[in-house]
Amino acid sequence: HTIIDHVKTSFKKYRIPFFVSVGAILLAAVLLFGGGAYYSQQYTDRIYPRISVGGILLGGLTEADALERLESAYSELLDAGITLQFQPEGNGPVHAEVLDLRVSGATDPDLVYDLVYANPDQMVEDAFSIGHDLPFFDRLATAFSLYLKPRQIDAGFEVSEASLRTVILDRFSDFEVEGAATDFAITLDGDKTAVEVVEGAISTRFDLDAFLEVFTKDLQDFSLVVHEIRYQEGSDFVTHEEALVFDEEINDAMLAAPYVLTYEAPDTRLYDWTVDASDLSDWLLPQKNVDGIVALGLAGESYESFLEDIRFDVDDESIDAIFHMEGDRVV
Questions:
Q1: How far apart are CA 47 and CA 129, in angstroms?
Q2: For residue 107, what are the CA distances in angstroms to 99, 103, 111, 153, 159?
Q3: Residue 192: predicted pLDDT
Q4: Tell me, what's the pLDDT at 180?
Q5: Do residues 117 and 96 make contact, with C-beta atoms less than 8 angstroms apart?
C-alpha cells in the first residue's frame, strides 16, 4: 500500500470520531463566545456576580442599588452602637453597656459626629470596577475566576481613635483603678537627710490599644460582636526596692541646696528663682523614663506651682498692634 492509501484507510476508520471532536470544539467555542457576550451584556451596568463588600453581597446590583444597600447597612451599624463589657475586679460581676457610635458635640449638642467612618461610594466604585472596562477575553477570565472563587472587598472602615478613647474614658472611668506613685518622705536634720520610701499602688487601666485593634477588624463586616474591655497594670510603677537605691543621691542633692535658677529675657531683663532643700524634699520622687529605667525626678503639685510662677514671670502677654492714618500713610 502507498502512503495515500494508508491515509484514506485511516480517515475512513476514524472519520466519525474526528467529526464528533471537531463539532464539540466548535460548539464549545460558540457557547463560550456567545455566553461571554451575553454575560457581558447582562452586567454592562451591574456589578459582576459573587462580589461582596464587608460580607454584603452586591453581585447583580446596579451601582445605585448597591449604594442604597451599603448605606442602609452603614446606618444600621451606627444606630445599633457597640456593647462593651467590663470585669473590673478579677472574677467579679461583669458589667455590660451599649456605647453609641454617634456622639453629640461637647459644646453643641445638636452637632453629632460619628466615632467610625466608612465611604459607601468608594466601596461601590471598587466593586463595580471589577470586570468592567476590560478587553473581552479579560472579562471572560474575570467571570470565570469569580465563579471559582467569590471576591470579598474590604469595607475600609476607619475609627476616630482619639475620640473613641475620650468617650470610653469619660463614661467608664469608674471601672479603672487609680494608682498612687511611690514617693519619698524626706526629713531634714541639720546636715543629715533621712529618706523613707513610701510605696504607692499600681494603677489598673483599660487596654484600649488592644480593644481598638480588635474593634477595627470587627467593623469590616458591618456588624459588631460584644467587646470586652480588658485591663493592664500601669507600666510606670516604681517598686519599694527600686526606690531604695536613691538614698545617697537624695542626700547629696539636699546638701547642695539652695539652687539659684537664672534667666535673661530678650529685652535683657534678668530673672532668678531660688530652690531650697525644703522645696526639694517636696519635689523629689522616683520615676521611670521612656526606656523604663528608674531615675530621680521632680513632680508634684508644689513643683507644678513653681513652674507656673516661672511662666507667669517670663511669658510676655501679646499686645495687638494699632494702626492709624497719617495723610496717605498707615502708621
A1: 8
A2: 20, 12, 8, 38, 22
A3: 78
A4: 84
A5: no
Report whether 48 contacts 59 (CB < 8 A). Answer: yes
Q: Contact at 8 Å (CB) between 39 and 143?
A: yes
Residue found under cell 452586567: 43
Give 315's contacts (C-beta < 8 A, 6+ positions apart): none
To the question of pTM greater than 0.90 for the whole model, the response is no
pLDDT, one tens digit per residue, over 35-81 is 555 666 677 889 998 999 998 999 999 999 999 999 999 999 998 99
Q: Which residue has the cell 518622705?
A: 185
CA angle 52/138/60 to nearest 5° reads: 30
Q: What is the 3-state secondary structure (H, E, C) of the chain?
A: CCHHHHHHHHHHHHHHHHHHHHHHHHHHHHHHHHHHHHHHHHCCCECCCCEEECCEECCCCEHHHHHHHHHHHHHHHHHHCEEEEECCCCCCCCEEEEECCEEECCCCCCCEEECEECCHHHHHHHHHHCCCCCCHHHHHHHHHHHHHCCEEECCCCEECHHHHHHHHHHHHHHHCECCECCEEEEEEECCEEEEEEECCECCEEECHHHHHHHHHHHHCCCCCCCEECCEEECCCCCCHHHHHHHHHHHHHHHHCCCEEEEEECCCCCEEEEEECHHHHHHHEEEEECCCCCEEEEECCHHHHHHHHHHHHHHCCCCCCCCCCEECCEEC
Question: What sign results for the dihedral spanned by CA atoms 218, 219, 223, 227?
Answer: positive
Q: What is the largest CA-CA distance in the chain?
A: 132
